[in-house]
Amino acid sequence: GEDVEQSLFLSVREGDSSVINCTYTDSSSTYLYWYKQEPGAGLQLLTYIFSNMDMKQDQRLTVLLNKKDKHLSLRIADTQTGDSAIYFCAETLPGTASKLTFGTGTRLQVTL
Amino acid sequence: ETGVTQSPTHLIKTRGQQVTLRCSSQSGHNTVSWYQQALGQGPQFIFQYYREEENGRGNFPPRFSGLQFPNYSSELNVNALELDDSALYLCASTAGTGTGELFFGEGSRLTVL
User: Fold this and answer.
1) Which of A31, A38, A43, A44 should be substituted to probe chain B, the one whose Cβ sees the most B Cβ atoms within 10 Å?
2) Whole-Å CA distances, B29 to A98, B77, B95
């Protein structure tokens, strides 16, 4: 079955790098995503990676995918206070592109 | 290009009542999906609509139903409301390119008393 797990909380200092981790159980995942949710708001798609890729970089964001260990990570370089939010990883399976299975979210707190 | 818009933003209902939530998809997007996000949890997939037909459903009872209209806008209806239905209901649209790039609205926060 599908199950996506994340740690609940991460605190970093402004300017440092943040690394948010996620594990998933279904090896047939096709796409894996990172979404950001600010208080009282909807979800903002940050980036996604196709399952046959190992890494994707997009400005300050780096996604690493280890398919063998079913582990996904999101690195945010030069973390800013505006990055404080809840980050969700999510996966889809073949043929179910709009059905995302989300983790419980990691709350990122950026301190000065 | 307009994004996904949802209404109402907040509403309060009592147990046993019925509620209708509305969603306008992003321009050019023909697929709409609905998610329920309980407090402190990740969103849970309710169902998806494509070309006015339900095209995939999560683990939700039949009292959760929906519609999609020719302009791709959508409604989520919940009958016989229960206290556990209190949540943020998120609508998402996609162009159906297969990458699953969902664009979410701000959500409708439902409180059931």
Assistant:
1) A43
2) 12, 21, 4
